[in-house]
Amino acid sequence: MPNSLDLPGLPKDNRIVVAMSGGVDSSVVAGLLKREGYDVVGITLQLYDHGEATHRKGACCAGQDIHDARRVAERLDIPHYVLDYESRFREAVIDRFADSYIAGETPVPCIACNQTVKFSDLLATAQGLGAAALATGHYVATQPLPSGHRGLFRPADLDRDQSYFLFATTQAQLDFVRFPLGGLTKPETRAIARELGLEIADKHDSQDICFVPGGRYADVIARLRPHAAEPGEVVHLDGAVLGRHEGIIHYTIGQRRGLGVAAGEPLYVVALDAARRRVIVGPRSALAVRRLVLRDVNWLGDRPLSDHGAEGVEIFARVRSTRSPQPARLVSAGGVVEVELLGEEAGVAAGQACVFYAGEEAGTRVLGGGWIERSRRSEGAEAALARLAAAEPLATN
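The structure assignment produced for this chain is given below.
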């Protein structure tokens, strides 16, 4: 007979590994599944700097979080294991983040962590323990499809929607992973934590990237890649050199404040030229993007993307986790995948993710996504960037 996780047999016949971060969400998942009678095993990953991370607020995977996960497991009377994944995390997430950043990109390490450490390595560990599924506290949902596979869907609580960070989950992984919180709101989750008698019911949510305390990306990159903080020029789109900077790692696309140059108009960072160590600035209009070229696309639609032909497929595209999906067209031709936005986006940078949806409402299906390799601006901005790429630096004003 079916059960709440769409698994064959009774709950007691199914071992479920729960990825327990020590936070409210994953703790409630473990508690709900234990209450329903599943054979629950909790696993917490030690990912980064256990000693220094202890008691650090706003970061996941810290020493205090491991302690909290252990106490929750004791309260629920389930076995709990802490696995040391620090070396794997550094290789698959931190090093990739640093290399992408110094290349002038804006990486999203939480996606890489889900893609590698959590839904590859931890998933394999769960299977090795004889689990029928791996459950996490993400606010997304999976549902059975007519094909026999499972689809990925936006949650009921769009304020907590984490589907952007899970676009790279493969079909095989989706068939094995479960997200029990997909139909709940955060207040409902906290209420359940209180019902279960969990002391972490009112614990604050993680906000920082675990290895970037306080959001100080440049400090982390300078420590990991000391050569990356090399000075260079701040150049206007028209070719004028406006000043100097102390390293492109201190800048992001769309940045306005802290440019260190004076001009008669508001200026924004419109491009980062890592090869020439240039920060390229220009008017806000130069940030407008309507076309994106993607790499490493993970397509989760029912039909292969190539079957849609030259006309492509209508989707809703999301270029940042904090933005809503907007109408777009996804086209795959000649081995190149592009997204044509019906509107415009500003501040789009290489290294970010573009995630595909069938719509924009709660419960909408996630159709996959890809990493932004480059964006295409207006003809004027593209021409100016091409001239700068070909020309030698001009004398400083």
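Interim note for the steering committee: The longest helix spans residues 109-128. The CA atoms of residues 265 and 283 lie 7 Å apart.
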